[in-house]
Amino acid sequence: MSKSELFRRCDFHMHSVLSPCARQDMELSAILDICGERGIEYLGITDHITADTDTGILWQTRCELSNLHPSMKVYLGCEADVLDVGKHTVTDEMRKKLDFIAVAANHFSNPFVVRPDRHDRRAIAQHYLRMFEYACSLDFADVVVHPLYVMPGTHDPALLNLLEDHEMIEVISQAKENGVAIEISPRSLVPEQMRFRMRFLGLCKKAGVKFSIGSDAHQIEMAGMTSLVAPIIEELGIVDDDIWLPESER
């Protein structure tokens, strides 16, 4: 089977100006224009939904999109937070009205997200895994974004190397069973996390999990830049059938 080219045409992780951490140049019209120029055919808007976010921003985006004329298919999603095992920021309205739901389980710099309560490195790594496991168990979750990724300024990335393959395989199997896709984004290319990332993504590929492709763009230069993950796609032998698309496209 030939290698994937579909990944170059997908970007399912995009923050508009309505995400507080996005730059002011991330207006929807600008996002659509540059993604069109970069050959994106499937685009997902995924603004942050944290514990204190007014979810009205989602419907504001839906309204604005209805007045634009994109060259690609655009899906309204979100990046919701796992706050703790058993607690998340997804509402019933979001479940009913959004095109897809992406979940993040590692925003430990966010004061609403429960951080590991111990300083033991193995315990911290297991906390990452438990949060990821909970995300994979959610019946409404379509994608887990930047899974088992250590955000800058939170923890030492090397601690994830303490996770054993069999521990991750158990959780990955749950993602597969629940139809939850695992994201590959340019964050996967961070050098100090690359070794672990390839081990983790290799286990996902072996388990038959689908991969969602996203730029995680917060600034216009990164919008639609999913071709950056080509080295990962090639090394793992990912083909078009491995790439996740929203339910309406399956």
Molecular structure report:
- By secondary structure, the protein is an alpha/beta fold.
- It has one domain: TIM Barrel.
- Helix content is 33%, strand content 13%.
- It contains seven helices and ten strands.
- Strands 3, 5, 6, 7, 8, 9 and 10 form a seven-stranded mixed β-sheet that branches. It has a three-stranded parallel β-sheet with strand order 1-2-4, with helices on one face.
- Helix 4 (121-137) packs parallel to helix 5 and helix 5 (165-178) packs across helix 6.
- The protein is globular and about 50 Å long.
- The chain starts with 9 loop residues before the first strand and ends in a 14-residue tail after the last helix.
Q: Please describe the biggest sheet, giving its number of strands, its sense, and whether it closes into a barrel.
A: 7 strands, mixed
CATH superfamily: Metal-dependent hydrolases
- Number of individual domains: 1
What is the CATH top level name?
A: Alpha Beta
State which percent range the strand residues make up.
5-15%
Helix content: 25-40%
Radius of gyration: 17 Å
Backbone structural class: alpha/beta
Give the number of DSSP strands.
Answer: 10
Number of helices: 7
Q: First CA to last CA: what distance? A: 19 Å
